[in-house]
Amino acid sequence: MYLSCLDLEGVLVPEIWISFAEETGIRELRLTTRDISDYDALMKKRIGILRDHGLKLKDIQNTIEKIEPLPGAKSFLDKLRALNQAIILSDTFVEFAKPLMVKLGMPVIFCNSLELSEDGYITGYRLRQANGKFHAVKALQSIGFKVIAFGDSFNDLDMIKQAETGFLFRPPKLIEEEYSHIKSHTDYDALYKDIERLITANGN
Length: 204
Description:
A 7-stranded mixed beta sheet has the order 4-3-2-1-5-6-7, with helices on both faces. α8 (173-178) links the parallel β6 and β7. The longest helix has 15 residues, at 188-202. The radius of gyration is 17 Å and the shape is globular. The protein has helices at residues 16-24, 39-52, 57-64, 73-83, 94-103, 132-142, 157-162, 173-178, 188-202; strands spanning 2-6, 85-93, 108-116, 122-126, 146-151, 165-169, 184-185. α4 (73-83) packs parallel to α9. The protein is α/β, with parallel strands linked by helices. The chain has 2 domains: 2-13 and 70-113 and 125-202, HAD superfamily/HAD-like (Rossmann fold); 16-64, thrh gene product, domain 2, CATH 3.90.1470.10.
């Protein structure tokens, strides 16, 4: 039985940190896992910038409330979930994700959580598991699922390579060129058709 595992930001919704950077005018917050492969270094940098500018979790949540799914993302996800089960595997946080999940029809998401000070500053984060996307795919395979995985960033590559079938979706040029052996899509319809063909040819 096939199951799809997909990234969230850059695939279904805009990058949260980029949206927040645009709202605050803080250019350094535009950096994401598309730019920096070391997630811990990236998060420590972000937390330091937030503290330096006196920005709290609530400030980010106010921006997230305004974010809408990417054009076509909701209908794509609806079709995908009708075709086979789908799980979003994301390095975002529970404290960020809920309003976005409501707008996407409440799909299943595995993500992480934040550590907060009493006055609402982000002080750290707790990973559900190191390299959690890869381990989630492996665990699903261990109970009999065949996994189709897709994402756009450095932190998606391990799950894509571990899956029976993996795709890149709208990756930055650097990743697309370095991993040219992984089929890349820019269009939801084309990606859906590839997944549908695979499932139809091999049985659900």
